[in-house]
Design a protein that fits this description.
The structure holds 2 protein chains of 2 kinds. Chain A is built from 7 helices and 4 strands. By secondary structure, chain A is of the alpha+beta class. Chain A has 2 domains: 67 residues, NADH-quinone oxidoreductase subunit E (Arc Repressor Mutant, subunit A), CATH 1.10.10.1590; 80 residues, 3-Layer(aba) Sandwich (Glutaredoxin), CATH 3.40.30.10. The longest helix of chain A has 12 residues. The two termini of chain A are 32 Å apart. Chain B has 3 domains: 211 residues, Rossmann fold (3-Layer(aba) Sandwich); 88 residues, Ubiquitin-like (UB roll) (Roll), CATH 3.10.20; 106 residues, NADH-ubiquinone oxidoreductase 51kDa subunit, iron-sulphur binding domain (de novo design (two linked rop proteins)), CATH 1.20.1440. In chain B, a hairpin with a 5-residue loop joins strand 7 and strand 8. By secondary structure, chain B is of the alpha/beta class. In chain B, the strands form 3 sheets. A 5-stranded mixed beta sheet of chain B has the order 8-7-11-9-10, covered by helices on one side. In chain B, strands 3-2-1-4 form a 4-stranded parallel beta sheet, with helices on both faces. Chain B is built from 18 helices and 11 strands.
């Protein structure tokens, strides 16, 4: 049975005219699948390859380069929470912030909480250094975090 | 000190700054209209005359880069915009994209007209969700208003701008890594030559430019090359290879400083002036220990080098790699250089794409050695070992395809050379500075 939803197929096809090669749609397609399914199943790799007229190995080759995309064993929770661990954030408490969230929600970076609500991750520089330490909730950046404000943010998810 | 009026940031923090309506009210797209009334070569000459050097990190003269495109090429020619801003400490492009996306699109349209490109791909790092939404909306507004599409401002010039999101990989900021990633492949940088201007995106002639560079292009067309050249620092007469450091620059200030932020200042301000006059100094009366001059891959200034001008020439004179992205990170005397350097090494090891063995292995081993030192198990000879690894990875020693590991090597070389005493004391004391917090988060 096909794993790509009709909506994803349509959205992938809508991109055909924007690029001179179909392969260029690999990242957009992987984003669509992971946004919806919280990981990229191998079956989806095959179906993306079919649409993009590629060998599944070519899609998988690209997928496996980006740690951003997850396989079934590392399925993401409903939300991704990234804590920045690069220099500007670490000078202002980034490591402590990450450790606090790990302890509070009983996860290591890369794991999801028992209720599946969030996957906690570390990130390299999120580009919000004027508001260090910062975290990214899905793709929304939150600046000047404290352990308390980060916790409040996660609890609202 | 009286501060110069911002130009690139003039519209930042004004109401509804991202909308087409306010942008047009402020005279937006008039520079594009002016460019479209000129010959493309005239636009290139205007940018060449301005002395604009790319704002992405390498500082290559923008107009000159444009002339490397093959003459009379039947097309397509592409403009790839590098918005994969990922160098630690850097956030100027994010502010421009989030708050003034039309300034960027106008710069892109002018540049495309100049290089005879009808299609621009804007490669945006995934983490910038707010930028994505601001740009997406701005692009749609432009299509609806006839600023993009088949008939730009009624002139018959055709232009499409496509927004393309990355997937959280630093190497995509390397221009050929970006091209590979855009093509749907792993972001492994290409061996050069051929340079992208000859054979780039989809194997076609391609110019890769940075976001801030696009904002500068728009301002140069609006205000003229002479205005741009009246700001900044002229070439060093003793250095025939110096192309000068003209124009305003967006400096990103972060770390141990009272007022972190993005400041628009003429190129050439010293690190000390920037930190004291714009950043309000260091909190809690502490002393500066070190300053990153332009993203961590540029290395460190020591406390005695703070009067270094942050232009394209200055940081190199005191052993740094260059101006880089002009991301200035202040490190005060409460921080340990051992911890700071470990953080830098870990970053590059995590972000090495793995294509070249010296980089993949070198960055990993430097991180391991730094971890050993940090955990109190280091030996004095580790410092020489670090220097040996750092000296053997990168395009400067000629062992890798791209410059990522030159950037990985530089903080190591600078830190050990400029702060050797601190490293030796740390090793001799045999103590660990790894915080319990970090062990919790280790995986």
């Amino acid at each position: 049975m096909a794993v790509l939803s009709e909506s994803i197929r349509e959205r992938i096809k809508a991109l055909y005219s924007k690029y001179p090669t179909r392969q260029a749609i690999t990242l957009p397609a992987l984003h669509m699948v992971q946004d919806e399914m919280r990981y990229v199943p191998l079956e989806a790799v095959k179906e993306i390859a079919e649409l993009l007229e590629l060998h599944p190995a070519e899609v998988h080759d690209t997928l496996s380069f980006y740690g951003f995309f997850k396989d079934e064993a590392h399925k993401l929770g409903k939300h991704r929470v990234w804590v920045c661990r690069s220099i500007s954030c670490v000078l202002r408490g980034g490591e402590e912030l990450l450790a606090h969230l790990c302890e509070k929600y009983h996860v290591h970076p890369g794991q999801q909480t028992a209720d599946g609500k969030m996957t906690l991750e570390f990130a390299e520089c999120l580009g919000a250094c004027e508001g260090a330490p910062c975290i990214l909730v899905d793709d929304n950046c939150e600046m000047n975090m404290t352990p308390e404000s980060a916790e409040a943010l996660v609890d609202k998810l | 000190m009286s501060r110069p009026e911002p130009v690139l940031l003039a519209r930042i923090n004004t109401p509804d700054s991202a909308s087409l309506e306010t942008y047009r009210r402020d005279g937006g797209y008039e520079a594009l209209r002016k460019a479209l009334s000129m010959a493309p070569e005239e636009v290139i000459n205007e940018v060449k005359d301005s002395g604009l050097r790319g704002r992405g990190g390498a500082g290559f003269p923008t107009g000159l880069k444009w002339t490397f495109l093959p003459k009379g090429h039947p097309g397509p020619i592409y403009l790839a915009i590098n918005a994969d801003e990922s160098e630690p400490g850097t956030f100027n492009n994010r502010i421009l994209m989030e708050q003034d996306p039309h300034q960027i699109i106008e710069g892109i349209a002018i540049s495309c007209y100049a290089i005879k490109s009808n299609c621009s791909y804007l490669y945006l790092r995934y983490e910038y969700g707010k930028s994505y939404r601001a740009l997406e909306k701005a692009i749609q507004e432009c299509y609806a208003a006839g600023i993009l599409g088949d008939n730009v401002l009624g002139t018959g010039f055709k232009l499409d701008v496509v927004l393309h999101r990355g997937a959280a990989a630093y190497i995509c900021g390397e221009e050929t890594g970006l091209i590979e990633s855009l093509e749907g492949k792993r972001a492994w940088p290409r061996i050069k030559p051929p340079f992208p201007a000859i054979e780039g995106l989809f194997r076609k002639p391609t110019i890769v430019n940075n976001i801030e560079t696009m904002a500068c292009v728009k301002q140069i067309l609006q205000r003229g090359a002479a205005w741009f050249k009246s700001v900044g620092v002229p070439p060093d007469p003793n250095n025939p290879r110096d192309a000068g450091s003209f124009g305003p620059k967006l400096y990103c200030l972060s770390g141990h400083v009272n007022k972190p932020g993005c400041y628009e200042v003429p190129l050439g301000i010293t690190a000390r002036e920037l930190i004291e006059e714009y950043g309000g100094g260091v909190p809690n009366g502490r002393q500066i220990k070190a300053v990153v001059p332009g993203g961590i891959s540029m290395g460190f200034l020591s406390a005695s080098e703070l009067d270094t001008p942050l232009d394209f020439n200055g940081p190199g004179k005191v052993g740094c790699l260059g101006l880089g992205t002009a991301a200035v990170v202040v490190i005060d005397d409460s921080a340990s250089m051992v911890d700071v350097l470990y953080n830098c090494c870990r970053f590059f090891s995590h972000e090495s794409c793995g294509q070249c063995t010296p980089c993949r292995e070198g960055t990993a081993w430097m991180t391991k050695i730094m971890y050993r030192i940090r955990s109190g198990q280091g030996e004095l000879r580790d410092l020489d070992l670090l220097m040996e690894v750092a000296s053997s990875i990168g395009i400067i020693p000629g062992t890798t395809i791209c410059g990522l590991s030159d950037g990985a090597a530089w903080p190591v070389k600078n830190a050990i050379k400029k702060f050797r005493g601190e490293f030796e004391d740390y090793i001799k004391a045999g103590k660990s500075s790894i915080k319990p917090a970090e062990l919790v988060a280790a995986h």
